[in-house]
Amino acid sequence: MKKLITLFSVCLLLFSCNSQQPKEQSYVIKTPTPERPAGQTDVLELRTDPLPTVRVAFIGLGMRGPGAVNRMTHIPGVEIIALCDVEQKNTEKVNKMLEGRGFPKAQEFYGDTSVWRKVTALPNVDLIYVATDWKSHATIGIQAMKDGKHVAIEVPSAMNMDEIWGLINTSEQTRKHCMQLENCVYDFFELTTLNMTQQGLLGEIVHGEGAYIHGLQPYWDEYWNNWRMDYNEKHRGDLYPTHGLGPVCQAMNIHRGDKLNYLVSVDSKQISSINYLKEKRGQDVTEFRNGEHTSTLISTEKGKSILIEHNVNSPRPYNRMYQLTGTKGFANKYPIEGYALGSEELDPALTKNHENLTAHDFVPEDVRKALMEKYKHPIAKDIEEQAKQVGGHGGMDFIMDYRLIYCLQKGLPLDMDVYDLAEWCCLIPLTAVSLDNNSAPVEIPDFTRGGWNKLQGLKFAQ
Ligand SMILES: NC(=O)c1ccc[n+]([C@@H]2O[C@H](COP(=O)([O-])OP(=O)(O)OC[C@H]3O[C@@H](n4cnc5c(N)ncnc54)[C@H](O)[C@@H]3O)[C@@H](O)[C@H]2O)c1
After folding, report:
1. Helix pair angle (88-100, 65-72), 10° resolution
2. What per-residue string of b and e applies to 32-54 under the rule 16 or more CB within 10 Å gives b?
3. Residue 80 sits in the same domain as residue 220
4. Listed residue (73, 76, 79) closest to 98, CA to CA
5. Domain total for the chain?
6. Strand 54-59 vs strand 78-84: parallel, antiparallel, or unpaired?
7. Which residues form the domain of 306?
8. Ligand 1 mutation pick, 64, 140, 186, 401, max ligand atoms within 8 A of CB
9. What is the pTM of this model?
10. Per residue in 92-106, pLDDT tens?
11. pLDDT tens, residue by residue, 46-81
12. Centroid of ligand 1 to alpha carbon of 1 (angstroms)
């Protein structure tokens, strides 16, 4: 009997040791990885010629774009060369803002959805900043790099695998930067927590959670040409994964020593947005592809797990979740920012009492504040006050733009490369594959095509 129990325990142990990896690849739906074209190499830690003055052109000036133009006027060494939007009123409005702030007027391009082509071709521009709707992001980004420009593209920068590989291949061929404008990695809590993680305070991170939970009812009618509702209506899957996934991937050093291996997704039926369309627009929609709530689990090569959620339909408080579970500590951003630290910090009187459920509680507010001060990320230290004044989601948008310009001016690798863009956007097509196959596991490619373990740990260039 004793032998039998031992054998059973060994089997259980073997099973649990391997449980992070799929037993056989056949359980996983394969995702093709196109071969890297000959003569092309990766753009890990890409350095480019320093640009003491960065000449910027903006494409897409709806709700999001004008704020970016304004933020750039607060960064020394930036020249705003061109403003482009389908609508003339949008370029005019932003030019008025520029004049009001004492800047020269920028050249305006407007009139149709192809006019941006003249902008990427401008000879006197270094960086194209794209804030159009999702469908035009990758097309503009690819052409911008072919036209010899660095490109920064709003989230999500690519919507399908062809667009993702198109951006990667073009960046590798042209040696131009292609950065996704993922601002949430620069929020103060996320930056501080990243620094804590890198200093080992939370131990090894074994699990991360992120989300985009944002009831978009007040905005649905504001988007140009109804692009956002239209996209949700026609596409299943997590359509906005980058805010949730970005900060977790950074804390887990994805493609800097670990990689995303596969995902599984489950969604709920859609009710709220169908009701919205009926009540607000009198539309009877029978086919709405996007689920009301989509949950995705990801497994990494190093045996870590990630949960990502998407819900833009239900009337819930805004939530990006952002939780990191480490072997020595825990960080949580929503709904309340807090840290819980390992058991060596705990009062033994508390831990011995199993009725006491507060043993692993968050550290008190004064301790949290002190931790946040102590572990403030070096890149935020000098610009935090200015970032809060200039604003953009409380300052994180300014830090993002500031870092982009800083690195371009010095010729340093950008904080986020085209492989980050690929990993964070690939959930859009791959969650749809999982959902359409009864939540089957779907392979996540190694977008670096063999380079995921070359760099050890994420480092922001200084
Ligand atoms: N990072 C963030 O926190 C954040 C916040 C809001 C929006 N966004 C992203 O920013 C992007 C824009 O969102 P928005 O809310 O401003 O949408 P919007 O509909 O208000 O603006 C889009 C603008 O792009 C213009 N446009 C569309 N196609 C064009 C083309 N071919 N050429 C030139 N202009 C074109 C439209 O005229 C419109 O003014 C989206 O990708 C969205 O996901 C990001």
Report:
1. 20
2. eeeeeeeebebbbebebeebeeb
3. no
4. 73
5. 2
6. parallel
7. 185-377+418-443
8. 64
9. 0.94
10. 999 999 999 999 999
11. 999 999 999 999 999 999 999 999 999 999 999 999
12. 67
